[in-house]
Amino acid sequence: MQNKQATLIIAEISRALIPFLIFFSFYIQIFGEVGPGGGFQAGAILATCLICYDLCIRSSDKFMNNDTLLFLAAAGVLIYAATGMWSLLFGANYLNYDLLPVKAAQSLGIILVELGVGITVYSSLMVIYNEIKA
Amino acid sequence: MLGNSFFNIEDIMQAQAFEYITIILSIALILILLILARSRSIIYSIILLSGISTLSCLLYLLLDAPDVALTEAAVGAALSTVILINFAIRLKASNISPNSKNKILLGICGSIVSIVLLLKIGSELPPIGDSSSPIHNSAAKHYLERTNNEIGIPAFVAAILASYRGFDTFGETTVILIAAIIVTLIMNIKDAK
Question: Which of A22, A34, A48 is the best residue to mutate to test the B interface, defined by the most B CB atoms within 10 Å of its own CB?
Answer without folding.
Answer: A48
